[in-house]
Amino acid sequence: MLPKEIKDRLEGEIKHVEHPRELAVDVMFAIQDHYGYLSDEALAEAASMLGMTPLELDELATFYTFTFREPVGKYVIHVCDSVVCWMNGYEPVRDYLCRKLGIALGETTPDGLFTLLPVCCIGYCDRSPAMLVNRRVHGELTPEKIDAIVEKCRHKAGKEVARY
């Protein structure tokens, strides 16, 4: 299932730790970075490498906000809905993102480029309202900043598609 180079690298890292379970999150992220999400098959293979059951690893995967058990867009936007972001304009930011992308929270654009998800807090309160795009933080959001971020992602995705 996993490409040989990824499996060999992960198994090499696992061999160098006393307790393989301590690398569970790293292994899940490596697989997710390759496939875009954690399929049942990939999760079972990772669990086997770590000496865990698939259920144990699934429990861990579903606990974390940044692991995905179903396919997501190339760019995952987590819009912060913490108390501070709410006070500083979360709702207009959320609504603008939904209109701009043509989707609701929890959905992926038809082209598979963007997934929009809420997140409880990203710790960027001093620059709220804020969001993450593929774990990269953006704050003091305005419609103009959001437009620039979305267009940069679209442009980058277009270039990446053209290379293949």
Walk me through the structure:
It is a single chain. This protein has 164 residues and is α+β, with helices and mostly antiparallel strands. It has two domains: 4-63, Orthogonal Bundle (Arc Repressor Mutant, subunit A), CATH 1.10.10; 75-163, Glutaredoxin, CATH 3.40.30.10. It is 51% helix and 11% strand. It contains seven helices and four strands. A hairpin with a 2-residue loop joins strand 3 (131-133) and strand 4.
Topology:
Blueprint: H1 4-15, H2 24-35, H3 40-50, H4 54-63, E1 75-80, H5 83-87, H6 90-101, E2 114-119, E3 131-133, E4 136-138, H7 143-163
Parallel strand pairs: 1-2
Antiparallel strand pairs: 1-3, 3-4
Helix pairs in contact: 2-3, 3-4
Brief summary:
The chain has 164 residues and is α+β, with helices and mostly antiparallel strands.
Q: How many helices does DSSP assign? A: 7
Distance between the termini: 22 Å
Per DSSP, what share of the residues sits in E-state strands of 2 or more residues?
Answer: 5-15%
Task: Tell me about the largest β-sheet.
Answer: 4 strands, mixed
Largest sheet strand order:
2-1-3-4
* Count of distinct structural domains: 2
- Which shape, going by the Cα principal axes? elongated
Number of strands: 4
CATH domain topology of the largest domain: Glutaredoxin
Order of helices and strands: HHHHEHHEEEH
What is the top-level CATH class of the largest domain?
Alpha Beta
How large, in whole angstroms, is the Cα Rg? 18 Å
CATH homology superfamily name of the largest domain: Glutaredoxin
